[in-house]
Amino acid sequence: MLPDLFPLTDAGSVFAVLLLLVLAGPILVRPLRLPDLVGLIGLGMIVGPNVLGIVSGQVLIHALGFVGLLYLMFQGGLDLDLAGFARRRRESVIFGAATFVVPMVATTAAAVALGLPFLAAVIVGSALTSHTPLSYPTIARYDLARNPAVTASLGATLLATVGALLVLAVASAGAAGSGGFGYWLLFTIGLAGYLVVMLMGVPRFTRWFFRGLGQDREVRLTYLLSGMVLAAILAGAIGIEPIVGAFLAGLAFNRFVPDGTVIADRVSFLGRSLFIPAFLVSTGMMLDPVALVTDPTTITLGAALVAAEVASKWLASSLSGRLFGFSASERGLMFSLSVGQAAGALAAVVVGQDLGLLGPDEVNAIILVIMVTALLAGVSADRHAPNVEPPGNEGRSLGNRVLVPVSNPNTVESLVRVAGQVAGPDSGAVVALNVLPFEATPEQVRAHRSLASRAERAALATGAEVRTSVRIDASIESGVLHSVVEQEGTCLVMGWEGQSRRSGLFGTVIDRCVAISPVPVLVCRPGIDEATKRVVLVITSDELAIGTDRGLSLAADVVNRLTRQAEVPVLVVTDLSRDELMHRLDGAFTPDEVMTEPAVLRALASRVGEGDVVLAITPQASSRLGRGAHRVAQAARGRTVVVAVPK
Description:
This protein is α/β, with parallel strands linked by helices. It folds into 3 domains: about 60-385, Na+/H+ antiporter like fold; about 395-415 and about 430-495, HUPs (Rossmann fold, 3-Layer(aba) Sandwich), CATH 3.40.50; about 495-645, 3-Layer(aba) Sandwich (Rossmann fold), CATH 3.40.50.12370. It is built from 27 helices and 10 strands. It has a 10-stranded mixed β-sheet with strand order 3-2-1-4-5-10-9-6-7-8, with helices on both faces. Strand 4, helix 22 and strand 5 form a beta-alpha-beta unit. Helix 2 packs across helix 3.
C-alpha cells in the first residue's frame, strides 16, 4: 500500500510535508548545537527520492526552493550597509579578489589533478569560487549587519559571484563552441544596460511609486517581491545568473526598507519562515547518501574539493582580515559568510550537466561540498557572532531614524511631513512617538493611538517608512530621550509654538530635550502650508560668531534633504557677503539665490511667501539666539520654521 502512496503528488500533501520539515529541522538539531540549516538539508535528504522517496521530483518544492535561493541573495542586498560599503569599498574589493582568485586556482587545480578535463575543472572551480552567505540569518540575529567585516564580506560576495559567473559563462561558451566576438559584444551591452536600469532607474521609480501608489504596506511588499523575481528573470534573459539579479534588486531597494520597520520585518519573516528553508530542503533532496559513503570516486573528489575550498576560503579570510585589522572573531565571520556554497555551485552544476561535462560522480561531489560548507558556515557563525560587539550609530546619516513626538492633532501632519522629508533621501524611517504619564487613562491611550495612525499615513505619503510608538514614562522629556536611545534615533523633530520664553530657548520640555539629546534636534514651528515650494535659509554673522560651524553644517544637511525631496529651490537670506557665505558653506550646497541685507529679519519678512520652509540655525545653548529664533518665526508670517540645533 505504501508504494502506491509515495511519492506524494498532491500539492496540498507536498506542502504539508514541507512545512513539517521546516518545523522539525531546527527542533531536531538545536539540542546538538548544530545550525538549523543542517537539520533542513538532512531532512530533505531523508524524504527525497534517494532515501524514503516520500517526495520525489516535486515541482512545488523545487519552485519554492528556487525562490528561496533568490530570497537569500535578495535579503543580502537589502541588508547591505551601503554607507558602510562606500566607506569599506577598499576592503570589499581586496577581499572579493582574494576570495575569488585563491579558491579558483585551488579548486581548479584539485579537479585537474583528479583527472577531470580542463573545461570541466574550470566549471567546478567557478562553482566553488563564488559563495552564498548562508550564515547571514545568524549574523543578522546578533545585529551585526553593519559590522565592518560583515559589510566587506557582503560586498565581496557580489564581486566574487559576478567573477565566478563570468568564468562559468566563458567556460560554457567554449565548451558549446560559441562565444565569438558578437556574442560577447551583445553580452557586454546587455550587462551594462541591466546595471544602469537596476542601480539607477529602479531606485528612482521606487521612490516615485512609494510616494504615490505605494502608500499601503501590502502594496509595497508585493512590489518588492515582484521586483526581486522580475530582476532575476531579466538577468537570466541577458545571460546573467538570476541570483545576481536578485542581489542587485536587493541593492536597488536597500534604502527603501530601513532596519527595524514593519516592512523590513515582513520581508525578513517571509523569507526566514518559508522560502529560505524550502531552498535548504530542496538542496537536501538532491543528495544521494549511498553514493556519498560508498562510491570511491565521489568520496575522493568530494574530499579533495572540500579540502581545497575550505582551506582557500579560510586563507583568503584570514589574510584579508589581518590586513584590515579585524579581530579573530570578525575574521571568523568573514569565513562563515564566504565558505558556504549553494547558489553559484548549483548554477554551475546545472550548466555542467547540460554541457555533458559533469557526470553523477562530479555532481554528487559538489553536493557534498555544499552540505559540508553549509555546516561549517553555520558552526563558524554560531561560534564567532556572540563574541563581536554590535556596531553603534557612528557613521549613520541624519535621516536613518527620525523621531517625532506627536501630541497636537492640529500639527501632526506638518511635523511628520518635515520628518519624512528629512528621512526621505536616506529612505530612512520616521518614528511617530506618543508619550503619556503613568496615570494615563485607557481613553487617552486610545486617543493617542489614533493620533499615531494619522502620523503614519502622513509619513507614508512622503515616501518614507514609518513606525509608531506609544510610551508611558515619568515625564515627556524622559519618554522622548529614552525612545531616542531605544529606537536608535539619528535625529529628533520637536514641535514648537514659535513663542518666546522669559527663560530658556523654546520652552521647558524642548530645552531639556535639546540640552541632553544624543542626536541633533530640529525644532519645528508648523506652518499653514500643505506643500513645500521653496527652502529659505537664514544665516547671520552673530550666529556664526558664537561657537563653531556645527549649526551651519547641520542646516546645510537639512537644506539638501528638503530641496531633494520636494525638488524646490533654496534662497539664502544673510548679512554675510556672498564670498564669505560660499566660503562658510564650503560646497555643502549651492544656493539658487542669495539675498544679502544688513537687516536680515526685515529682508526675510519681505521675501517669504506661500509654501516656504524657513530654516534657521542656533548653537546648543544661547538665550539670545533663542529669542532670535522667535523673531525669525514672527518674520516668517505663518510659514513653517525649522531651527537646527546640533548635538
